[in-house]
Amino acid sequence: MTIFCFGLLISSLKSYDRVIRTEYENGVGLVVVDKDKYLKLLSKQYSTIADTVTEIINLEAIMNLPKATEHFISDLHGEYDAVQHVLRNGSGNIKEKIREIFQGRLSTREMNQLATIVYYPEEKVDLIVSELTSREEIEEFYTLTVTRITELCAFVVSKYTRSKVRKALPPDYAYIIEELLFKDTIMSNKEHYYDKIINTVISLNRGKQLIAAFAHVIQRLVVDHIHVVGDIYDRGPYPDKIIDTLMDGHELDIQWGNHDVLWMGAASGSAACMANVIRISARYDNLEIIEDAYGISLRPLMTFSEMVYPEDRYEPFLPKVNPDSDDEIYQEEIRQIAKMNQAISIIQFKLEGAIIKRHPEFEMEASLLLDKINHDEGTVTIDGKVYPLRCDYFPTIDPNDPYALTEEEKLVVNRLMEGFLNSERLHKHVQFLYSKGSLYLKYNDNLLFHGCVPINDDLTFMEMTIHNKKYKGKALLDEYEDILRKGYLNREAGSDNNRYLDYVWYQWEGKASSLFGKDKMTTFERLYVEDKATHFEHKNAYYKQRHNIELCNMILTEFGLDSCKGHIINGHTPVKENRGENPLKANGKLIVIDGGFSKAYQATTGLAGYTLLYNSFGMQLVSHQPFTSVKDALVNESDIVSTRRIVDKELERKTVRETDVGQRLTEQVNDLQALLAAYYDGRLVEKVSK
Ligand SMILES: O=P(O)(O)OC[C@H]1O[C@](O)(COP(=O)(O)O)[C@@H](O)[C@@H]1O
Ligand SMILES: [Mn+2]
């Protein structure tokens, strides 16, 4: 009996009755099969000695290539323009490559122009050509640009196998790009042949398309693998467009953030998660995401809130980003949004209250505040202290049963829930999150997760009870992930019958959640109480202690990683660089990469996001300055100014062989060697081609 890696086998295994059992290791499926049967199956895919040898040579060649570049980004928070710019410019990598090749040959202006063409090919080429007057000038521009972009592309793809590059080529121009990229430099008389190709393309008016095709190959391959360390959703306007971009073919994985899990919970049928999603969208004036991007009607909520909440009582619920505008329609919209925010906030507190009461083990009683309201005095008692309320109008709260939804509220919740359960586009996106995502990831010795591993003050792992069983450390995160997956799989069961949903919601704001990592979420206090002391959320000890190397080592070991080699990579908490905070903690063993793509946080970080790069030379942290606009990038060729700092330097250039992929390829080579041996000693017979 032997264990084989899924990679090769999956395509050759037609019938699973040969599989004795499946095991998982590091997220990779391993099947235990009968060895002879396995080799027989493998021989269907590699039916001759020549085929087998060729594949071994191919895999060996791949393993000797430099390790591909990993890009880590996090806390994108709907900021599509900034994110797509960072993806297009490869976190500053494209400019660096342009400099490496063209320094001394092109002026800075020409290099900036070429970079902008690579980022926004169609738009930039149109802009340039519109300013040229003669046909000669236009042809000259195309010829020069195609030649330069070919050279740049050849440089970018030089670390990949031809087969990988081929797969990344757009079908329309694959043949031409391949010819130009893999030029035959020995036969010098072929230069004429290449010039001819370029001239023909230009004379056929396809210059722009060819340039765009090259630009997309460069964009795609300059960022080989993306890790999104959580929080694609909330606060910014276009999380849906970010997901569409991520779905566009880049190799990537996602470590879910608390905001992503909130949307996943809503799509799984959790009414409490849904209420939070709507409340946050209203608070940031982003309800279009729900209505337009996902086609979920908010009409029931709007009608209800107009009926129940009067004009002069919605001030605390005004959207957070509310530009000064005299536009009457806009003011009317803001008024409606504030009322919807008010209605859904109360619904949220009621739904959450019911969950908290069902689960004393959540230890969230401190968040039960609806029953602490004194309706006659207009006050609320928090932690034994009485505070005046900013707004004391609660028409739907029955003081004798404060957490009960009114009949109308129930109706609103049901109608909204139907919308969340039936939005095709939302489910397409959420399924993408599930298929590419996980709560944590072990990748090339590093451990990636959005928030924290919850710990107690004495640095022991914090325990949590789920379905009457206690978990902590890695086991807790595994159980949380299982809950999230099962919650979604059982979404047809509905809010009341899906036994996973309360635990899904818990991960949004529970104190032992690896995504939240604070003692409580003070949403009620932020909305209703002036005194800022009540708004404070105490962070888990993890955040105070993560500069501590011992703690980092303890966590890496808990997750089965070599603490001498690995790093922990987190998002979630904006790094306040402008107040002296360092994103590198514990001597660079732990790296926090929430640099504030979210506009709402840029004032505290002084930055507009980080990207962490991990290539064959080591790790570098890139900080990005705020992105102004696509127009500015196009017309003024302004780029996000990025500064780099070294996190780790490899003594020798790292190859694919030393990575997780290399490990899998080595296993595949071993399998193929076994197949070859079977051919050589006659246990298997080669297929004879006719
Ligand atoms: O400032 P906002 O957007 O109202 O959000 C505040 C809430 O967001 C949180 O910071 C969680 O979101 P993050 O994961 O983006 O930090 C809560 O701790 C806090 O209650
Ligand atoms: Mn977060």
From TrEMBL:
GO terms for biological process: gluconeogenesis. Coiled coil: none annotated. Its cofactor is Mn(2+). GO terms for molecular function: fructose 1,6-bisphosphate 1-phosphatase activity. It catalyses: beta-D-fructose 1,6-bisphosphate + H2O = beta-D-fructose 6-phosphate + phosphate. Pfam families: FBPase_2 (PF06874). It comes from the Bacteria. The keyword Hydrolase applies. Keywords: Carbohydrate metabolism, Hydrolase, Manganese. The keyword Coiled coil does not apply. Pathway: Carbohydrate biosynthesis; gluconeogenesis. Its EC number is 3.1.3.11. Belongs to the FBPase class 3 family. This is Fructose-1,6-bisphosphatase class 3. It comes from Jeotgalibaca porci. The gene is fbp.
